[in-house]
Amino acid sequence: MRTVTLVLVDASGTVLGALPPFTVELPWWPEVEDVVAGARERFGVDVAVLRLLHADRPHPHGGAVTYLAQLDGAAPALEPVEFEPAPHPRRAPYAEVGGPAASIRWALGEMRALGLGTAKSVVQRKTWNLSALWRLEATGGPLWLKHLPPFLRAESEVLAWLGAVAPGAAPRLLAADGTGRQLLGHLHGDDGFGSPAADRFAMVDLLHGLQRRALDDLPLLAGRGVQDRRGDRLRQQIVVAAEPWLGEIFGLDALVAGLADRMARVAGHGLPDTLVHGDFHPGNVRFSASVPPAVLDWGDAFLGNPAFDILELCGGLEPHEAEPLVAHWAALWRRIAPRSEPEAAVELLRPVAPMLSAVIYAGFVHNIEPSEWPYHTEDVPTCLRSAVSLG
């Protein structure tokens, strides 16, 4: 549950005031469909949520949250508010005044160009520092407008590649503008949050097939801007992310100092580098009894060791549940690299996986404006402490 305050601006960016606080059931800060609906139902106004301004707790979710929203139409009675908008170089385009409307215009134009008609309705589903998402109800079924910030725009390249080599294994990329805007087809089924171990074997099979296909296309993907974490690059990135915390987290310095040797041992176990999803938990797999699984949200994808994905997929499982899953995954990789030792690589990378997460979160913080740091600032030290406990 959240208590939401909306600070409203008009199309010129002039601050009009704030709506009285109201409650929405979903606690997740990026989810704004119920926020938009609540503003309409309670106060009779149509708004587009632009960005987070303030939260009363240092990390997600729940609590009292204040967003900036753009009003469409006449202003109701509003409470005075002390807020002066100011530009910021790291603000996502969709978080600017007029940004959501510009993204929607682009998507509707692409629909017309593709012969898909127009949208009967447009519903804002999510907005935060990593994406904005709208559901477009078209004549032929729903489509999705996803707008990523510039530092994640390579997802479009990954989706274009997936659409060419494995149609249906990921959202269909209908259009992209190179800046982060994407028009996506709809995937049937349900997100796999909390899936039991038995359902995750099909997820392993799907991802391994994609990663096997990527082996020959790594130069192509690197040339299209997909993050490269092969060789010594990941170790260097970890050193940078960990440096501010070396004096605060006991044992981190020793773990970092031993990283070069650890990564050399990983390389010696013979797993080939490939396309790594980077956030391969069951919630990013969409499936049902009637449709094959498909993988969502490739914004964190990189080139590197595939063991990181099986470690993420095993999250939340007991050891006796995870071990058969890892064994199945390892058997698939030994077909590709018969002399490899995938299980040994997994064990060596267990403490490295949360360090990789720290790198990713530190990159988010570096690329977003300070008002949205609460989404991620606690994640970096939390991940590094987890790495030490595993190392």
Task: Describe the structure using short key phrases.
Nucleoside Triphosphate Pyrophosphohydrolase; Aminoglycoside 3'-phosphotransferase, Chain: A, domain 2; 13 helices; 391 residues; five-stranded antiparallel β-sheet; Phosphorylase Kinase, domain 1; alpha+beta; 23% strand; 3 domains; five-stranded mixed β-sheet
Describe this entry's structure for a reader.
The chain has 391 residues and is of the alpha+beta class. It has three domains: 2-86, Alpha-Beta Complex (Nucleoside Triphosphate Pyrophosphohydrolase); 94-185, Phosphorylase Kinase, domain 1 (2-Layer Sandwich); 190-390, Aminoglycoside phosphotransferase (APH), C-terminal lobe (Aminoglycoside 3'-phosphotransferase, Chain: A, domain 2). The protein is 38% helix and 23% strand. The protein has 13 helices and 16 strands. It has helices at residues 33-43, 99-113, 155-165, 197-214, 218-223, 233-242, 252-257, 259-268, 307-313, 319-336, 342-349, 352-367, 379-390, and strands at 2-9, 15-18, 22-24, 46-55, 63-72, 119-128, 131-138, 141-147, 173-176, 181-185, 190-191, 227-228, 274-276, 285-288, 291-295, 302-304. Strands 1, 2, 3, 4 and 5 form a five-stranded mixed β-sheet that branches. β9 and β10 form a beta hairpin. The radius of gyration is 22 Å and the shape is globular. The mean pLDDT is 96. This is Aminoglycoside phosphotransferase domain-containing protein. Residues 134-337 form the Aminoglycoside phosphotransferase domain. It comes from Dactylosporangium darangshiense.
